[in-house]
Design a protein that fits this description.
The protein is mainly alpha-helical. It has six helices and two strands, in the order H-E-H-E-H-H-H-H. Strands 1-2 form a two-stranded parallel sheet. Strand 1, helix 2 and strand 2 form a beta-alpha-beta unit. Helix 3 runs antiparallel to helix 6 and helix 4 packs across helix 6. The longest helix is centred in the last third of the chain and has 23 residues.
């Protein structure tokens, strides 16, 4: 679910997001899968995905479900705090931009420091209100803090942490 949905971007409804997840899991269950490890890269799908997971787990007692958000791991959060502090932000974060810079060198042009604004708003927020409140997509962060080196450190930590977890779950 993309609350920004600007030019060139597609948007999926909450019901569409939940339906896609449910259909994907049910299809794989028909082929014998019972364990699902979901690594999320965007918080916008949290609500619909949690509803879908709850419905699936209620309907199928034979599923194992592991739900992870790379930015919520305590060690990842600690490294984000060390590298970026509070200026990391909550959306279009310097950490996300850093990882993109690491994975796609040259795709992101570094920017000058930007002021961190904290407008008042309700939550949840509609896509239209999000764009009006946060016109450049940033929530409380300064993307000028992003760097390829920080992205590499964050990415490598995630690969190690979640790779180790997957190994434990599958052995």
């Amino acid at each position: 679910v993309d609350h920004r949905c600007g030019p060139g971007r597609s948007r999926r409804s909450a019901a569409g997001c939940a339906g896609q997840l449910t259909e994907g899991v049910e299809t794989r269950c028909r082929h014998g899968f019972r364990g699902f490890y979901c690594m999320r890269g965007h918080g916008g799908s949290t609500g619909p995905a949690e509803v879908a997971a709850s419905d699936l787990l209620s309907a199928r007692g034979d599923l194992q479900w592991y739900w992870r958000c790379w930015w919520e791991h305590a060690e990842v959060k600690a490294l984000e705090d060390e590298l970026l502090g509070e200026a990391n932000g909550d959306h279009d974060t310097a950490a996300e931009i850093s990882i993109t810079m690491h994975l796609h060198p040259g795709a992101v042009t570094p920017c000058e420091p930007l002021p961190i604004e904290r407008p008042e708003h309700e939550w949840p927020i509609s896509p239209e209100a999000f764009r009006a409140t946060f016109p450049d997509g940033r929530m409380y962060g300064d993307p000028s803090l992003a760097s390829e080196e920080k992205g590499k450190r964050l990415f490598d930590l995630c690969v190690r942490l979640f790779g180790n977890e997957l190994e434990r779950l599958t052995s």
